[in-house]
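Note to self: user wants both folds in one dump. Writing first protein now.
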Amino acid sequence: MTTGNILLSGIVGSTAYGLAREGSDVDRLGMFAAPTEDLHGLHGPKESHVTTGPDSTLHEAAKWCRLALGANPTVTELVWLPDELYEVRTPLGDELIGIRATLLCAKRVRDAYLGYATQQFKRLHDRRDTSSAATRARAAKHARHLRRLCHQGFGLYATGRLTVRVEDPDAYHRFGEEVAADPAAALPLLRHYEAAFDGTRSVLPEHADEAPVEAWLRRVRAHHYGVRAGA
């Protein structure tokens, strides 16, 4: 695979959220199109390519769509990045950004964002070793992600728009340190957002509209028909 079949990619993670500090990794996420002919064989193409140093994840277009329709938070943010964070934008990638709202539905957004936040809380609650600086740093990172997932998920649920960059990054770092010292400090925030979701009528539909995404994916397949693997 070369950059010729990458449809969309950009910088995600702490840099995108505005939470990066000195020494933070720079994470990249993108989407590529497998040559259409490769989809017809006995063994399909690899659906994800993950590298470290630099940290990069690329999902094949169909897999990305499936994950996005499930409201996977990391995958979803690829089509909501600030313009300056995109490193590759193709016409097909721009088309997908244009139909990003059709990927969303209320229940999946709530379940995905609160579900991931709850997983972060469980990691915090279940940790045993609190003695090392590295362990406390990981706990603080989990806590920041918990707060971000709650805030971003509720914003998406309530307004239909995902704001990737957080307001007041220092508050997230303070929260992380508080929770690293006492994991129970995260519970009131989690309960607050659970109640906020329950008490808010979402602007999102009951079901995602798959038709525009299906049509987009078929345009991707038509565009990459006859493209050789590795070309």
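First done. Writing the second protein, which came from a different request thread.
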Amino acid sequence: MELFKIGFISVSLIDIIDIIIVTYIFYKLYLVMRGTIASQIFLGLTLIIIASLIAQTFNMKSLGWIFSRLTDIWVIAFIILFQPEIRRLLLVIGRTRIARYFLKFNASETINEITDAIKELKEREQGALIVVSKGDRLTSFVETGEPLQAKVSKELLISIFNNRSPLHDGAVIINNNTIEAARCILPLSSIERSGIRKLGTRHRAGLGASEDVNAIVIILSEETGDISIADDGRLKFLSGLEELKRELQKELETSDVKEEVKEIFEEMEEE
């Protein structure tokens, strides 16, 4: 239904809704990248798109042809430049209720076994690095270690991370209720952030793993006994075992995609 005309251009209600949605998306993307080099690149891409639309509207063939060649590659450039942010949003989509319905498992038993193992390892002044999948198959990590395919248990985790065990140096990969592998090698975080150089190898590896896959990484420091978790490229130090259990319950249960996307935008705006 046509509402009005601007010259020879007809404007309908759908056109207005379309413009509002696109404007909102571009505005939120700009807020996410504001203050970074990426914001300047994003602004340049936006100007190219606007110029291309103007050229097409006024039938400027030569200018339109030039800008169309540029806009042909802007999607690829966007994916390359903003790959970390896109990956995080895709991970959020993978955590929705619909997606998690097909990947549901009883997490309570696994959580209890993990927290009990962390408690005893902490008392023994031993460290641990545990990657718990939230639905993904962590094949790339599993292949770097020793396959176990054993049910998660406190006793087995304690045995693996015993300093005299040949499997203690590396990460344990847990998927559903199964320890898939031990002594796995995790990628160190490649994102430059304040304080990361002060962290130990376990913490950097935990951050690196959480940046690459949909998983929560539990880190127990052998030196200090501190417990922390890495999730979605963020490191959080915990006050104790009760908070660890709450975090695991929250992260291994279904989540609201709207709230998680909101958290990503708010966190990145603060940065």
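Dump finished. Worth passing along: Residues 210 and 232 are 5 Å apart (CA to CA).
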